[in-house]
Specification:
Distance between the termini: 34 Å
Radius of gyration: 15 Å
Strand order of the largest sheet: 1-2-6-3
Length: 95
């Protein structure tokens, strides 16, 4: 089993209007995570980083967008999004 740092698994919180609404109403938070991270690793990393208890984790693969610069067409890399549901009484405060 590989051991990785929490910061390599959970890359950054995704701060959006939809994410803040879900955080307030259903205690769910969005994170950008490593593409090869599984749900168990994500759960442990969020619990260690933010000192909370996680009830569940949903993940989805996001495909990178196509970008064009003059005549060259390229793609941004694919990435993974995690929706983390916290147990009752726990919350994460983002600045």
């Amino acid at each position: 089993m590989r051991t990785r740092d929490e910061y390599t698994i959970v890359r950054a919180p995704l701060l959006s209007e939809k994410g803040s609404d879900l955080g307030e109403s259903q205690n769910q938070y969005f994170f950008r995570v490593a593409v090869d991270a599984n749900k168990i690793e994500i759960k442990r990393a969020v619990e260690r980083l933010y000192k909370v208890k996680v009830a569940g984790v949903n993940t989805m693969r996001m495909s990178g967008k196509r970008k064009q610069l003059r005549r060259k067409v390229g793609r941004k890399p694919d990435w993974k999004k995690a929706i983390v549901t916290l147990k009752q009484g726990h919350s994460i405060e983002f600045v």
